[in-house]
Amino acid sequence: MTIAAAYQYILVSLEPLYADREAKNIASLILEKLTGYSHSQRILHKKDTLEEKTEKQLQKIINELTTNRPVQYCLEEAWFAGMKFFVNEQVLIPRPETEELVSWILESNHEKKFSETRILDIGTGSGCIAIALKKKLTDASVTAFDISSDALAIARRNAQANQVYVEFLLYDILSENAHRAESPFTIIVSNPPYVLVSEKDEMMERVWKYEPAQALFVSDNDPLIFYKAILRYAEKHLAENGELYFEINEIKANEIQDLLEYNTYRRIEVKKDFQGKARMIRAGK
């Protein structure tokens, strides 16, 4: 099978599951992974024949995709902020909306005049937020929490692969045994679980079936539980004039803004993502 034929085979196989543009993007990701060729290189080498073992890998990936398994898990990699991250079902797949959150923090950080930038990422998962921030803010001190030791192992692997140092700590933000920071953080950021359990039926199967429920869903009875816990933590661990950044569920934007105001935060700003959804919020202490 040539590279050109493999591309068409992938498109035909994915036709029942994906729209045309998404299928083409997935086909490109698969062939880049299997051949090591970029898009332009694949055009030049389109008549090259895949090795037998590569064809077997391709078939395995196609078989997994037809069960609705996300391509990032099939390939065990995802791109975020221009960097490659190892991912599997122990961590959420990094998303473009979260890249926007990172960009917002980086833009805002240039306006601050702290002698030292100390960042905390709560619920780090693959480590994408913490690693992307450290990659750009090389002088910053970056710490990241997660409740999952499996997720932290992946985050450490990703930090090493992307050549940055982040302090990763096993910690449950809902726990009463609060972690004691040596000095206050100037930025606390979190993309916590915020999808209501009642919203599950509205989600694509490939999301709720494969991505970790612990990192996705929150009870309808207390949908702001993680935001409340982070605010309690921030009372003692956010520096004066420091800032909080959250990714949010758009239907809870007003409630989260009210919660921040009730906790005497100021400079509260809600930001829409590229889809026009209220997806991020920041507040100053």
What does this structure look like?
The structure is a single chain. The protein is α/β, with parallel strands linked by helices and 285 residues long. The protein is built from 12 helices and 11 strands. The strands form 3 sheets. Strands 5-4-3-6-9-11-10 form a 7-stranded mixed β-sheet, with helices on both faces. Strands 1-2 form a two-stranded antiparallel sheet. The chain is elongated and about 65 Å long. The mean pLDDT is 94.
Range of strand content: 15-25%
Number of helices: 12
Name the shape in a single word. Answer: elongated
Distance between the termini: 60 Å
Alpha carbon gyration radius: 21 Å
Query: What's the pLDDT, averaged over the residues?
Result: 94
Output the strand order for the largest sheet.
Answer: 5-4-3-6-9-11-10
The low-confidence parts are none
Helix content: 40-55%
Number of strands: 11
Helix-strand string: HHHHHEEHEHEHEEEHHEHEHEE
Question: What is the strand and helix layout of this fold?
Answer:
Layout: H1 3-14, H2 20-35, H3 39-44, H4 52-65, H5 71-75, E1 78-80, E2 83-85, H6 96-109, E3 118-122, H7 128-136, E4 141-146, H8 149-161, E5 167-170, E6 185-190, E7 195-196, H9 205-208, H10 213-216, E8 217-218, H11 225-237, E9 238-247, H12 253-262, E10 266-272, E11 278-284
Parallel strand pairs: 3-4, 3-6, 4-5, 6-9, 7-8
Antiparallel strand pairs: 1-2, 9-11, 10-11
Helix pairs in contact: 1-2, 1-4, 2-4, 6-7
